[in-house]
Structures are given as C-alpha cells and as structure tokens.
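A common beginner's mistake is to predict each chain separately and then try to dock the pieces by hand. The better habit, illustrated here, is to supply every component at once so that their relative placement is modeled jointly.
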Amino acid sequence: MNRFEYLRPQSVAEAVAAAAVPGSAFLAAGTNLLDLMKIGVARPQRLIDLKDLPDLDIIEQLPDGAVRIGAQLRNAELAHDPDFRQRFPIVAEALLSGASAQLRNVATVGGNLIQRTRCAYFQDPASACNRRAPGSGCDARGGDTRQHAVLGWSEDCIATHPSDFCVPLAALGAMVEIEGPAGRREVALTDFHLLPGNTPERETALGQGELVTALRLPPAAAGFARHARYVKLRERTSFAFAVVSAAAALRIVDGRIQEARLALGGVAARPWRAEEAEASLRGATPGAEAFHRAAALALEGARPSGDNEFKIELARRIALRALTLAAAGTPDRLPALPASPFAPLPGGLHV
Amino acid sequence: MSLSVTLTVNRVQHRVLLDDPRVTLLDLLRERLQLTGTKKGCDRGQCGACTILLNGRRVNACLALALSHDGAEILTIEGLADGAALHPVQAAFIAHDAFQCGFCTPGQIMSAIGLISEGQAGSDAERVREGMSGNLCRCGAYRGITEAVVAATRSMTKEKAA
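With all components supplied together, the output reads:
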C-alpha cells in the first residue's frame, strides 16, 4: 500500500473542496478501496475520510412520497430497517445476498455504487487492463470470462459492475444525488455507471471532486412491494458475486400486470435495465408465456465477450425465474438464503 | 503529521501513536497491543479470521483503517472470558467440537456473538449457516460450528429471558 495523506473534513462542502486536488479519494468504510490499495490497484495520494460528515446516514421520507437514503448509511442498517424492508423488499433481498454480514455492517450505500469491477485482470497489476491503465490492452479478452459482460461491452473492456444492490435500484428508477465543485446535481442510477466504449477508465458519471450524497427512490418506486424478487446465481452457496442476477417487480391489478420492472446484474458494466421487456409485460396476464417473451427481450442484443456464451441463456433463465417468483408474491419473511434460485420448496435446505 | 488514536479494547483504554496512516485495526491489535488472538488470514475481507466487535458490531478488522476509528470500543477474543469462566459461545465451541486447527476459531466466535446479538437468525440452522458465511474454516468444521452457534443462541436467549 502506498503512503497517503489523511484528511477528515467536517462538512460536505469541506470534503468536496478537499477532493478538488488530483490524486484524492473519498474513504467511506474502505472495504473496497483499502482492499484495492493493498494489492496496488488503487494508489490515492490523499484519503478524505467521510466519517464525520453529518446527516448522511439517515433514511428520509420526503413530502412527495419519495425516499431519500443517505450515502453513508450502512448496508445492514438499510436492509434491516423495518419500514424500508417492508416497502422495498427487493432492495433488502439484494443487499442481504451480497458480501458477508461483517462487510454489510460497514459497507455504505454510496460505496456500493462506486465499487470497482471484480474483473481478475483489473485486480492484477501484472495484467493488461485498459480500465486500470488506459491503452495497455485487455487480458480478459481470451481469458477466463465467467464474470464478464454479454451486454454493452466494447473491444477495450468487458468488465461487469459487481453490485447486487444496484440491480433493483436500476429497476425502481433510483436517482443519485451528487455534490461537487459546481454545486448539486442528480443523475438516474441507470446513467450513473458508464458503458466502457473506448474510455473504460471513465467508470461513473462523477467528475473530479464530486461526492455521492444520497440515493432517492421516486414515488413511483413504491407499489411493487407485493410482487418483487431479486434472484442471483453464484458459484458457491453464499458470499460470492453474481454470475448473473435479476430483479423483477410487478404491479398486478385484477389479474393483469399494470406495470413491470426488470433489471439484470453481472452482465454489463452497469446494472442493466430491460425497458423493452418491461413494456412487453404491461397489460399482460402474469404467466409463463409473457415471462418467456420478456426474458428473451431482455437478452436481445446480448453477445459473448469470450468463452461466456452460456451466460446469455443463464441470464434469460434467471430473468424468467425472477419474474415467476415475483408473480407468486413477495414472501412475508426473506428466505434463509436471500436471492437464491435454489431450494424452491418452502423450508427446503441448501446444504 | 503526528497521528494517534484512542481505543477502548476489551474495556481498557489505549492511546496509540501511529507513525504511519496505513495501519489497520488488525495490525494495531496484533502488532501494537500484542493482542494476537485476532488472526490475519487473507487480509482482504474474504476469510473472516480477523472478525472483531467494533462498537458492538462484527466487522473485518483487516479492512478498517485504525485512524478512522478513533474513540471506538473494540471487543476481541481476549476480552470474552471472565477469568476462568468462558463466554457461552466459547463453551459451546468446545462442547460441539467446532474446530480442528483453531486458526479461524477466534473470528468464528466473534462473528457468532455478532450474529446472536443481531437477532436475525435465531436457532434456525439454515439462517445460522448463511449468517456465518463470512467466516471460512479450511478444516471444514462447519457442522460443529453451526451446532455450537445454535446451542449458544438457545442458552443465551434463555439466560436473557430468565
């Protein structure tokens, strides 16, 4: 790990001013940043610790029916908040399917958004990686691509964004609130993570010195609580990143789908919202026919970025499973293993 | 820049001068306070051997910058027993043969205490296994670990009710 200067601002304004200096990085829990510093992938010259910033760790009910979630709130606190998990069970399920209890106890909402890819070649400074070292090439091409993209990738980069949390957020139309040198602004979560194109080193919409201060779920995000599931396929039972995942949320009125939301994880450099698939479900009767059609639409345009063609069919089936489970109804209590596609029977055991 | 942190570790306050901002809580415990019960396994938040309670919550000490936690209260494996009387989770690990080599055991025990106080798993073995998934055991003593955590949950809940 490189040496660094350590700063501890007392306000958002101070933090943003401090981050204007190139080489600065914000430190929240550090579960991703410190890890990357240990392996030499991140080498910030200044760490700006956000610990003392006031009022960034609260959940706020806004007058228009939106919910604002402070960027410094811990994953576990959000997932276990009784009111939040009742209104947004799909977000709680995604959060609790990610990482471990120890990590969820410290990792923050904002940190989850800006976490870096888990591409093994990005994480290995000896490998060529256009994302880590622009222009150096991409050793993932032709390498082990189980964790890599099948949608939205480019010749320069095939990495995926690893977040579970961001997948239902994309489906629910979350907004990201940002403060920076030029003041406040906000972007849709689905525009926050950038597709690689020929500038894969630009990972998010954040500019120099800009800080994510909150997430906002708009009023329209409520109303899916009864039919919303996150499903995630991983290579071991728990504590693993998604190979593919899907968040499906339905509003069913009088036996018809009034509104549908669908997003995929593990398939692209951003959580992948499938709006055409959503549109195909509007007005449909929930069932196999409509769900097969929607899942196929969600993967339209997908192509392998290496030896990972299987992920296209896998993602299609995970989308189908998520829609089917969502239609069956959100369980009163999350299953023992949140988001698992296995153990289909209530009370069934995984291990 | 002179750097220092004040931490309450196992109910004793320590002021530690740091010559370097890079020190993690794990390295501080092991190398500055000689509390080597907390283990360094992967040093990357993947194995759970370094689990401690930080302000009452289980965390990976390897991914926590010491400077960031000035004023914190920490509980490690060394702070559990009351003289010769073991903590109920320690006793349950022995009664249920929940280890072989013992390297992951301090982290497993601290994680189990965190899990029990979170109250999300109860004595449901499936939920206990999921709740303990941040702690790897290379000897594969998972069956005993699950039994020990379930038994300790029952005995501690009964104790609280009594």
